[in-house]
Amino acid sequence: MSPGNNPGHGEHAVTIFVNTREFQWDKKEISYEEVYNLAFPNEPLNDGDVARIEYSRGHNGGGAGSLQPGGTVKVKENMVFDVYVTVRS
After folding, report:
1. Do the Cβ atoms of 85 and 45 come closer than 8 Å?
2. Most buried of 14, 16, 41, 71, CB within 10 angstroms?
């Protein structure tokens, strides 16, 4: 996956932050799976692992919330995503 490296795609790239790392994103939305893959490239979740994704600086006022598996959220310039992986007990 190479977000932000798709010339002619027609979308304006915005800067987002995933676990404090900066990325260029050129789609209007980002999915739970895409955020996880930016945070932990080539590291799939193991059985029993759970990823919790929280975001801030999004749309609609404060723009804070959480992203669930299979879900998407509209991106905004300087949006922040925090990804936490825990082992389900």
Report:
1. yes
2. 16
Q: What token pair was written down for 69?
A: 């598996």
Nearest to 67 by CA among 53, 79, 57: 53
Contact assessment for residue 63 and residue 4, using Cβ atoms and an 8 Å cutoff? no
For residues 66 and 2, give the distance between their C-alpha atoms in angstroms, rounded to a whole number. 24
Model confidence over 15-38: pLDDT tens digits?
Answer: 999 999 999 999 999 999 999 999
Is the overall model pTM greater than 0.70, yes or no?
yes
Residue of 72, 64, 67 whose CA lies nearest to 84: 67
1 vs 23: CA distance, rounded Å:
12
